[in-house]
Amino acid sequence: MATGRPRGYDPDGSSASRGRAKAGVQIPHIHGDQDTLVPTSANSIELARRYRDLGGIAEIVLIPGLPANKRGHDGPELYESARLLKFLLAD
After folding, report:
1. Which residues contact 43 (CB under 8 A, 6 or more apart)?
2. Tens of pLDDT along 5-34?
3. Helix, coil or strand: residue 15
4. Does residue 31 lie in a domain region?
5. Which of 28, 29, 44 is CA-nearest to residue 87?
6. Which pLDDT tens digit goes with each residue over 29-68?
7. Nearest one of 62, 57, 64 to 90, comparing CA atoms
8. What does 29-73 look like in DSSP terms, one character per residue?
9. How many CB atoms are closer than 10 A to CB 87?
10. What torsion do the CA atoms of 14, 24, 43, 49 make, to the nearest 10 degrees?
């Protein structure tokens, strides 16, 4: 039966994601809370949920007040985040 998805497509955990989770690769996902282009709930939160279900560590770093005109993806607020720095420096 044709599903329209590539052969071997696994939306609940690609082999690459499983391998990363098993290896202990941590994922910080940075998102502005004013992002209207890429909704947090359907993207960052879902990515983190699926990665955690595979046994991985994922953290969502929401940057409050990131200007809407930047669509939540750019600006010093992202790169100067104390939570992001803490995540990156953790063992």
Report:
1. 31
2. 555 555 555 677 888 888 988 888 887 777
3. helix
4. yes
5. 28
6. 887 777 777 778 778 888 899 899 999 999 888 877 775 5
7. 57
8. EEEETT-SSS-TTTTHHHHHHHHHHTT-EEEEEEETT--GGGTTS
9. 17
10. 90
Alpha-carbon gap, residue 51 to 27, rounded angstroms: 9
**Does 42 map to a domain?**
yes
The CA distances from residue 76 to 5, 46, 82, in Å, are: 38, 25, 12
Tokens of residue 66, six digits: 């990131």
Note down the domain range covering 43.
25-89
Q: Name the phi and psi angles at 38, rounded to 5.
A: -125, 100
Q: In total, how many domains does the chain have?
A: 1
- Domain assignment present for 40: yes
